[in-house]
Amino acid sequence: MTASLAIYAFLFGAVLGSFFNVVGIRVPAGESIISPPSHCPNCRRRLTAGDLIPIVSYFFLRGKCRSCQSKISFIYPFIELSTAWLFAFALLYTGLNGTLIVIWTLISLLMIIFVTDIRYQMIPDKLLIFFALSFLTIRLFIPFRPWLDVLLGASFGFGTLLLIAVISCGKMGGGDIKLFAVLGLVLGVKEVLLAIFFSCFYGSVIGIAMLLTGKIKRSQPIPFGPYIVLGTLTAYFYGEPLWQWYLQLF
Questions:
Q1: What whole-number distance in Å separates Cα of residue 155 and Cα of residue 160?
Q2: Percent above pLDDT 90 for the chain
Q3: What DSSP state is assigned to residue 31?
Q4: DSSP string over 74-102
């Protein structure tokens, strides 16, 4: 039964991942997520049902538009597959209960942010407001954390990133600061601090590796959103064991 539910969660996540691509690309551009229907950005041809099968269509079409043969960004199947895998993993991690709604909502936010930051290097306020209200509404019915931890988590997330931005002379974007305030609503104080640590750690390690291999230049701006996604997922799923390990050291 658990395996069957995980498969359904995977398929559900793949479909939502396709939708998250649309949201992440259209919302920052000020476009509707409903109209016009999905189409090729190059030749404007409306996509058929066969072009829109999550994950599968990209590889079946060999990453190119059926009509004009222009390349399709790999971010589309990546987000679809990532969302599918994370939805299935979350189900196996927490079981079929109210907390699953919280995790799936968090994953949804992270996947959309991944797209917006990679594509535009920005995190739209309207997305953050929507998810902040969503988490607060969910908390009214599902007590996933004490209210004090929820509010302090948002305060610590915002305040810590603001401090980093001041120390780094503005190198930390305002969208990242506000994003951590929203993440704090879900993670609470301890885990939002862990998320900040891991986000900076991943960003530093991968950034240095890319510099050394010549993938990026020293003055080139790097989207921080993907590292926030990695850091947040690490903190959420492994935060408590990591805190226990840390406390045992001291």
A1: 8
A2: 60
A3: -
A4: THHHHHHHHHHHHHHHHHHHH-SSHHHHH
